[in-house]
Structures are given as structure tokens and as C-alpha cells.
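hi! just following up on the protien thing from before. the input was this:
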Amino acid sequence: MRLEERLKEAYERTPPGQAGAYDRFLRLRARSVRTVAAAAVLVLALAGLGPRLLAGQDRGVVRPPQPAPAAPKLIARLTAHGPGSHTLAFSPDGKTLAVAGNHRITLWDLDRQTAIARLDAADAVAAVAFAPDGRTLASSAYDRVVLWDLASRARRATLPMGTFNIAGQLRFSPDGKFLAGGDGGGKLVLWDVARRSRLAILSTGIGSINDLAFRADGRSVVVGGSGPGYSGRGDGVAIIDLARRRRLPALRLPAGSGSYTAVAFRPDGTALAAVGSLQHDIAVWDVTRRTRLATLATPSQVLGVVLSRDGGLLAATNPRGEVTLWDVGRHAPLGPLPGFHPRREFFLSPRTGTFTDDGGRLAISDGTGSVFVWSTSNP
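and the predicted 3d structure came back as:
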């Protein structure tokens, strides 16, 4: 005879008013059934909802809160060679900072806060960029770009610009095979680094190029124009297909709006543009889809913006010279940069402000000969 049948017989012989084992058995079985049923419903619900939760596509589903980045911390203040604005570039490992201006490029060891090398340029340097392997530095001046061998501190090659404007921004492709320079006339110049030759001069269809960035696969470049007053075509952002040597449809911005543009490529290949305007806001655009992702409200006018390489962080300045760091994904300010008190108004740009490749550090030249470096993440 089964246990359940024995308990039932015992229950029937139990005097009224007394709880028997069979009562307890029924209660436990009912509780077990309810527990199993609830677990089954939960499993089925998660099975249907899980993929959408992970994709963030289910309406009304709130993603688990992520820890906010730490407030920026000042870690170094460097004295550049001579007064004025200086153009900056971090080495790939973020430990060395190139500070260029007044016919000289100084390499700083940020951990020790000491100058480790000085390169004498024949002309004033407009832009600098490290190759991905950290062994070569490119610098632009007037009608040419110079490649420096950092081991020997000697010039390795000189590349002709081929345009009538200085390259105000330089970037190496992620594999280091190509170098791109954006000039003041809206032209994008592309060089083959190994062959020391110019490959193409491409029209971007926008005004003076303020910033540019390679996609991770090196197949395209996004460029951002700066204004006002550089070109009657106004400001804009465009993506250049390097394989086909053609310009994809541009994201046009209002002509003469006084906007200041910085660009970046997300790891997923989406091109971003941050546009700071005189209208007290910063617009963040998905250039690929030509849609506005966010509007960051600021208490005053914006006189310059800089984006991190992955588009996650943004630095913006106002007419008082204050610089605020923003978390782009959360649309939230992380606070003003501590210790930064320029003596006069200055215009922040991707030449005078730059992030490390991982966004962990930010450096800004204040226009008076000082360079400030902050940590933007937890140590």
C-alpha cells in the first residue's frame, strides 16, 4: 500500500478536532505544487523576456543601474615651452603626452611629470598624432607633415600636403598603415605611411575640418567641421568611404550657427558627432542615421567640445573658461574639471584637448602655456 493511502486510512480513524499526519501531508503537497508552479511561470517568463532584456528592446523594461564614473581628478600640471595654445596627443598607452607649439614638440612622462624628449620643428606645429605602435609621431606644419622616429628622436620622412591649408588635425588608421589629415579648406588628405606617399585628396563638402576619426576597421573616416566664418558652406559632419574614395551623405548643420564639433566612432561602428552651440546646449548626433541622440543642456554658451575615442565622455567649455565633463550615455554632467582656472577666455578644440584611447585621462592646454591632465576614471 502506498504512503498516501496509509495516511488517508489513518486520517479517517482520527477523532474529529485532532490534526492528523494526512492533514499535514495535504498542506505540504499543496504548498509544493504552488512553489513548483510559481517557479515554472518564472522560468517561462524569463525565457521569453530574457533576450529582450539583454537587448534593451522591451518597452517598460529598466536596465539594471550601472555604477557612475568617478569624478575627474587633477593628476598633473605641466609648463609648456612658451605661452599660447598648444596642440596635444597621448601615446597609445596613455603614459606619454606630446605637447607641441612654438616650433617645438615636448614629450612628457606623465607618471613622473618630467620632460623626456624635445623635438625641434622648423615651423610652428599645428597638429600631432601618435602611431598605434607608439614608435612614430606625426606633426603638421604649413604645407607638409613630418614623421618622427621616437627611438632616435630624428625625422623619418616628410609627407607633402598638396593643399593650400595647414592640416589642423591628424589621425593614424587603427592598423597604422594610413595617416589622415583634415585641413582648413574642408579637404581630407590620405597618406600611405610605409610608402611615404600621398594617396588622395578628398573633398568633404563641409567647412574647415575641426576633428576626424577612423572607424575601427579603417574603412571610413568621420570628419566634423567647425565655424563660424570659415566657409560659406557652413558647418557639417560627413563620413568618407576610403575604399571608394567618396563622401557619404553629410549631416548638415545651420550655417553660421557658431557651432564647435567633435566626432568619434563607437565600437559598433556608429559615427557620433557632438555639436556645441551658442544656444546653451550640446547636441549629440548619430551621424550614420542622421538622427539626434541627445541634447545636453548647459547653463551658458559652449565655446568648444572634445569627445573621447569611443564617444562615451565629452568635455565642454563656456565663456568663463570652465570645463565640464559629461557622461554621454547618461546625458549627465560629472562636474567641472578641478584645478582649472584659465586667466582668460579660450576655445576648446580636439587640438587643444584630448582623451587617451581608453578615455581614462584628459589633457587640456589652457592657452597660456600650461597643460592640465585629469584622471577621468577610478584609479
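The two ends are 70 Å apart (CA to CA).
The longest helix spans residues 21-55.
cheers
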